[in-house]
Design a protein that fits this description.
binds iron/sulfur cluster, 2 domains, Endonuclease Iii, domain 2, 12 helices, Endonuclease III, domain 1, elongated, 0% strand, 59% helix, single chain
Length: 225
């Protein structure tokens, strides 16, 4: 697989987009943006990643800022009532469930990890509401460790293009961990999320504008623009 060429094309596309559109469309996904804003604070990355699940980028940013403003550390969140956490998390998707999970996570972090977020995949996966996507994003964005965050965009594009053949995001992650050079592990999420939102759209991708079409098998694409 010509990974160097694919990543060079995606990076140049993103740079061009940034120059052309100064608006938020060219920005990195909300969690990456918030991680940069909060100096990669692991608690902030964990909270915003949880809030981001099934939630639009702009809502994630607003809700994360509101919640982290009141609860900049696990101890402060533990002091809040669950209702208050839910109010601050609104209108993020499943905000009540996320509020309950966050309260439990704060307790576990205080009980077992001295109020710190562990830099360990298994420890993260043991936290309520934390799956592989969240754990990978915390490891990469907060701790600068190797990880591949596979969300719906990464999963869809990698399979459409024929770079992997996987039914589930976990299997896509497994294949990428095997085939993708490590230097691209942290970058693939931000690039493909943006590409998936703008070009390789779920229902009808803009194949006529796609820079990597010559590296794509267009598997399962029945309609395109
Ligand atoms: S050619 Fe079409 S399906 Fe393939 S990556 Fe580009 S936009 Fe997506």
């Amino acid at each position: 697989m010509e990974w160097d060429e694919i990543f060079a094309l995606l990076e140049s596309w993103r740079e061009k987009l940034k120059e052309e559109e100064t608006g938020k469309k060219a920005e990195d996904p909300s969690v990456s943006a918030l991680a940069a804003e909060r100096c990669r604070d692991p608690w902030a990355v964990l909270v915003s990643t949880i809030l981001s699940l099934r939630t639009k980028d702009e809502v994630t940013l607003t809700a994360s800022r509101a919640l982290l403003g009141r609860a900049p550390a696990p101890a402060a969140l533990w002091e809040l009532q669950e209702e208050e956490i839910a109010r601050l998390a609104y209108p993020a998707g499943f905000y009540r469930t996320k509020a309950a999970n966050l309260k439990n996570i704060a307790r576990i972090l205080l009980d077992r990890y001295g109020g710190k977020v562990p830099a360990d995949m298994d420890a993260l996966l043991a936290l309520p509401g934390v799956g592989r996507k969240t754990a990978n994003l915390v490891l990469t964005e907060a701790f600068d460790l190797d990880g591949i965050c596979v969300d719906v965009h990464v999963h869809r594009i990698c399979n459409r293009a024929g770079w992997v053949s996987a039914l589930k995001p976990e299997q896509t992650e497994e294949s990428l961990r095997r085939d993708l050079p490590k230097k691209y592990w942290k970058r693939i999420n931000a690039l493909l999320v943006l590409y998936g939102q703008q070009i390789c759209r779920p229902l009808s991708p803009f194949c006529s504008r796609c820079l990597i079409h010559h590296r794509c098998e267009r598997r399962g694409v029945t309609r395109s623009r």
